[in-house]
Design goal:
The complex is a heterodimer of chains A (114) and B (113). In chain A, 0% of the residues lie in helices and 51% in strands. With 114 residues, chain A is mostly beta strands. In chain B, a hairpin with an 8-residue loop joins strand 10 (86-93) and strand 11 (102-103).
């Protein structure tokens, strides 16, 4: 069965370190998204991609970067982790524009920056 | 801009009670509307959707009707169960635009037996 997987499920890192969160989908979806979930804020969009080599900034992109070298993967990198980036991160994917079928979400990565 | 406002939680009900979670939206165009559900420790799952005015989305006993005149998409269920305990998110997307989901802040629902 097709799926979208995130790794690791839990991560503790120190302030200032670079961290990469993985997202891998086997739906063959062109669109991929990274959100962070914080109490009182719902889900906020960090970065998104409509296809290979395409990346776009979302509403809370500062301190994060992504790259899309193939259809299946959209890794999220925190360049220099800060305590404000302690959060739960969700990856999602969807069909191409014009064929809306809804997002499919991963199970999330809980990141703690100490 | 585009935004979604949900009723604040947490909401606590007894089993078999009637549920309403309010959702209103602001959009620059004609959005499609969604309810997602997040069970403890899991990602979000699509619960139901509606893509045009007066459409009713339904799934697992939950319903929501797209009301363009009141810019609302309230979630209802006639008789809730303990297994419905979760966080519920209302969301919108503009299909003609960037196709980015915009979420409300979420409403935590707890059902007591």
């Amino acid at each position: 069965d097709a799926e979208i997987t995130q790794s690791p499920r839990h991560k503790i890192t120190e302030t200032g370190r670079q961290v990469t969160l993985a997202c891998h989908q086997t739906w063959n979806h062109n669109n991929m998204f990274w959100y962070r979930q914080d109490l009182g804020h719902g889900l906020r969009l960090i970065h998104y991609s409509y296809g290979v080599h395409d990346t776009n900034k979302g509403e809370v992109s500062d301190g994060y970067s992504v790259s899309r070298s193939n259809t299946e993967d959209l890794p999220l990198t925190l360049e220099s982790a800060a305590s404000s980036q302690t959060s739960v991160y969700f990856c999602a994917s969807s069909e191409s524009k014009g064929t809306w079928q809804g997002y499919t979400f991963g199970s999330g990565t809980r990141l703690t920056v100490v | 801009g585009n935004s979604v406002t949900q009723m604040e939680g947490p909401v606590t009900l007894s089993e078999e009670a009637f549920l309403t979670i309010n959702c209103t939206y602001t959009a620059t165009g004609y959005p499609s509307l969604f309810w997602y559900v997040q069970y403890p420790g899991e990602g979000l799952q699509l619960l139901l959707k509606a893509t045009k005015a007066d459409d009713k989305g339904s799934n697992k006993g939950f319903e929501a009707t797209y009301r363009k005149e009141t810019t609302s998409f309230h979630l209802e269920k006639g008789s809730v169960q303990v297994s419905d305990s979760a966080v519920y998110f209302c969301a919108l997307i503009l299909i003609q635009g960037a196709q980015k989901l915009v979420f409300g802040q979420g409403t935590r629902l707890t059902i007591n037996p």
